[in-house]
Amino acid sequence: MFKKEMTAQKDGAPHYEDGDSLPATAEDGGPEPLQPPADRLPGIRSPLLLMVQTLGLMLSILPAILYSVLRKIVPPAGKSLKDKVVLVTGAGRGLGEGLAMRFAKEGAKVAVVDVFPQSAQETARDIQENGGIAKAYVANVAKVEDIQRLRREVTEDLGPVDILVNNAGLMYGNTVTDMPDTDLRAVVEVNLLSHFWMAKEFLPSMKDRNSGHIVAICSLSALSAPANAAAYSCCKSGVKGFMESLRAELNSQSNNDIKVTTVLPYFINTSASYVEFFDLRIPPVSIEEAVEATVEGIKREEVVFTIPRDMYFSVHLFQLFPQYIIDKFKEIFYFRVALPSEERRKKEPTQHIISQLSSK
After folding, report:
1. By CB count within 10 A, which of 20, 40, 48, 160 is most buried?
2. Which residues are catalytic?
3. Among candidates 215, 222, 233, 184, which has minimal Cα distance to 350?
4. End-to-end Cα spacing for the chain
5. Mean of pLDDT over the chain
C-alpha cells in the first residue's frame, strides 16, 4: 500500500498528490471530524465513598453465600402462575410444547405460538382436553408484522401478556464457509433479532402495568460454543447479552417490577432426528428435566441459570485456567455438532422455515 503525500494549498486545505478525493466532511454530508484526545481524563469519582462501598460489598459476600446455599437446600416455592397469561413461541413441539403444557397445569392461560398451524393447534387442543386454557396462534417471530398481529390477537383473546417466553429458534449446523447467505440471515433473524422484535412489541404493556416477566430460552453454547455451530452460537451469545442489557435498562428505571430470566440449557433430547447430529460425552437432558427446571426458575424469578445447573459454575470456573487446559477439558468432555447431508437437510423443519423467510 502506498503512502498518500499531502501538500498544503493556498487556502490551507490538504491535498492528496495521488489524486484521491478528500475524506468526507460535515460540509459534504460526511461525519464531523474526531476531536483531539482529552487533555485531562476524570479520575476515580468519590474515592472515599468507593472504598466504603467496596468494604460493604466484601462484608456482604459471606451472608450472601450462606443464603444461596440455604436456597439450594430449601428452595422457595416461587410465585403463582394461576390465571397469568403466558405466551410461548415455538410451542408446537419439543421444549416449547412441554413448557406450554406445564404452564397450563400451573393454572396459566397459555398462548401457544408456532410457525406451523397444525403443531400449534395440536398443543392447544392437548391442553384444553386436560382441562387447561389455551389458544393457538400462528406467527413467524422473524416478521415484525406477524408479531404486531400476534400481540393484538392474544390481548383480545386472553388479556395482556404477563410472561413472555421466547423459545422459538432454529437449530442449525454448518461450517462458516459452506453456510448459504440466505440460511445465515434466517438463523440470525429467528434466533437473535426476534428477541428484539418481541420485546419491543410486548414490553410497553408491561411497563404500563409495571408488571411482567420476559424469558429467553438461550443455550449453553452462549458460554462455550461447539464447532460447526457458529451462527447458532453467535446468536445465543447475542441473546444472553441482550437480556443482560435489557435487565440493566429496566433496573435503571425507578420502581421497576419487570423480571428478566435467561435459561441456558445443555443439549436437549427434543427429537430423535436432532440427537443423530449430537456427538456428546455427557448425554443430553430430557425434555421433562428441561421443562421442570425452566418453569421452576421462572417461578423463582431467577436471572440466569443453566440446565443442568452445575454447568454454569463449571464453565465459568474453567475460564480461570490456561487455554491449553480449557482445550483439553473440551477434548475430554466433548460436545460436537455433526453436519447433515444436503439431502437430509432439505427434509428438516428448520430448512422449511428458512425457505419461508428467504421468500419474503
Report:
1. 160
2. 232, 236
3. 184
4. 43
5. 88
